[in-house]
Specification:
The protein is an alpha/beta fold and about 270 residues long. It has 2 domains: about 5-125 and about 240-265, NAD(P)-binding Rossmann-like Domain (Rossmann fold); about 130-235, 2-Layer Sandwich (Dihydrodipicolinate Reductase, domain 2), CATH 3.30.360. Helix content is about 30%, strand content about 25%. It has 8 helices and 12 strands. It has a 7-stranded parallel sheet with strand order 3-2-1-4-5-6-12, with helices on both faces. A 5-stranded mixed sheet has the order 8-9-7-10-11, covered by helices on one side. The relative contact order is 0.15. Bound molecules: NADP nicotinamide-adenine-dinucleotide phosphate (NAP). NADP nicotinamide-adenine-dinucleotide phosphate (NAP) binds next to helix 1. Catalyzes the conversion of 4-hydroxy-tetrahydrodipicolinate (HTPA) to tetrahydrodipicolinate. It is an enzyme of class 1 (oxidoreductase). Keywords: Amino-acid biosynthesis, Cytoplasm, Diaminopimelate biosynthesis, Lysine biosynthesis, NAD, NADP, Oxidoreductase. Pfam families: DapB_C, DapB_N.
Length: about 270
């Protein structure tokens, strides 16, 4: 049997982090090397996820945890404020980053790619690890070739820190690659309430809805003569992201530099 991939999880006691810990503990080809979080220092992460103790205690110091555990991969589901520093610490320690946390800028991703290549390692930054969401983005990019008038509405819980969502930005980028920049709407349009038309991207609009009770949804609406096309994805459970994270952890071991977007692994 091949050596197990040693996985550290940052944000291990958060909502996504706990699912990642469960996924790692449930896959014999992976070993949980470390669990890092701001809170719960010293607690057994197995107990925190509602299972038997697994012997991995929560550490609050990422660098110490990565070096002492001999981690191969760091999976990060923390916060937009913490993720950049975490990623740099990981790459400098020779640990491959798999980043699900949203909020990294294009420039930061390019810098991370450079740092990874200097170290001869690779990693993945993916704003969405769910297969249904990836297909939604692919279909939207395809539709944009034929129906260039488009708006995106994304829905998330009201405690989400960044807006628009990383998924909507990635969808917008993919749409923009498939259509000429086109400033939509009436050129004389005026907003009587500021921001009501949403964020402007490459001539079209992105709208971010934030409400309690919502998990993660996105609708891409195309308008043409006498017709509209709506492509919609709804996520209901964090476990739905884990098959994607599992594949990403394994792929990260073979990559050089940063791959952006999980869709690179889906034909
Ligand atoms: P969450 O429940 O708030 O979890 C974040 C965890 O990170 C918390 O336990 C937090 O600790 C911890 N943390 C904060 N700063 C840290 C640091 N410097 N080092 C280590 N741990 C730190 O959030 P979530 O719902 O799991 O979401 C996490 C991120 O994943 C968000 O950016 C979200 O948008 C993103 N996300 C991505 C995908 C995807 O498919 N890529 C899917 C869902 C969510 P405290 O509680 O003490 O602050």
């Amino acid at each position: 049997m091949n050596r197990q991939i040693r996985v550290a999880v940052a944000g291990a006691s958060g909502r996504m982090g706990k699912e990642v810990v469960k996924m790692v503990l449930g896959d014999e080809s992976l070993a949980l090397a470390a669990a890092i979080d701001r809170s719960h220092e010293g607690a057994d992460i197995g107990v925190l996820i509602g299972q038997a103790p697994c012997g991995v205690l929560v550490d609050t110091d990422l660098e110490r945890a990565l070096i002492s555990s001999g981690a191969d991969v760091l999976v990060d589901f923390t916060t937009p404020q913490a993720v950049w520093n975490n990623a740099v610490v990981a790459v400098r320690a020779g640990v491959r980053p798999v980043i699900g946390t949203t909020g990294l800028t294009k420039e930061q991703i390019a810098e991370l790619d450079k740092l990874c290549r200097e170290r001869g390692i690779g990693g993945i930054v993916a704003p969405n690890f769910s297969i249904g969401a990836i297909l939604m983005m692919k279909f939207a990019a395809q539709a944009a070739k034929y129906m260039p008038h488009v708006e995106i509405i994304e829905y998330h819980g009201d405690q989400k820190l960044d807006a628009p969502s990383g998924t909507s930005i990635l969808t917008a980028q993919k749409i923009a690659e498939n259509r000429q920049e086109l400033r939509q709407g009436n050129p004389n349009e005026e907003e009587t309430i500021e921001g009501v038309r949403g964020g402007y991207y490459n001539g079209f609009r992105i709208h971010s809805v934030r409400l309690p009770g919502v998990f993660a949804q996105q609708e891409v609406i195309f308008g043409g003569f006498g017709q509209t096309l709506k492509i919609r994805h709804d996520s209901y459970d964090r476990a739905g992201y884990m098959p994607g994270v599992n594949i990403a952890v394994k792929k990260a071991m073979e990559l050089q530099g940063i791959t952006y977007g999980f869709e690179s692994f889906i034909d």
